[in-house]
Amino acid sequence: MSLESLVEEIRRRGEADVQAAEAEERAAAEKLGKERDDRIAQLRAESAQATAVEIARERAQRLAGAKLESRKKLYEARERRLARSVTATRQILADFTESDDYPGVLKRMCQVATEELGKQLRIGGRAEDAGVLQKVAGKAFDPTPFPILGGLVAQTADGRRRLNLSFDELLRLREDRVRDLLA
What we know:
The chain has five helices and three strands. By secondary structure, the chain is mainly alpha-helical. It has two domains: about 1-70; about 95-180, hypothetical protein PF0899 fold.
């Protein structure tokens, strides 16, 4: 073998090694590019999913907040309407105290108080009702006025038992029923 053929053989082997190294480098670059593209696609999919979850959560929170606000406003409106109705009811009761039927109601209330608490009573009411109560209750009448809408308050002579038949108390005790009727 001559020197020229040896140089040619070395050159061919070198070129083959260079081509093999270049092919290996291209394959590695393609592999890295494919891994990069796959990772980018995976990150985009994860980001889209996380965004969709966050949007759904935000939408649910806003919807729940809006529902709560609407229930709150409905409750407030209902309470305002009921307060107006209770005020109107109180006015009707106040007007009733001026009617001709009111003394009869006071008389029946005195009878109920006597049946519940016995004969030894002290019966009081509004200052405006003093004349009627004195006629109805007789000696049991207590002239101390009570700040009530109408009706009467009875208690035993020793003060241990008390029966509040004032319109205020009767309305308060039946407020839920009144609210149901007015609703």
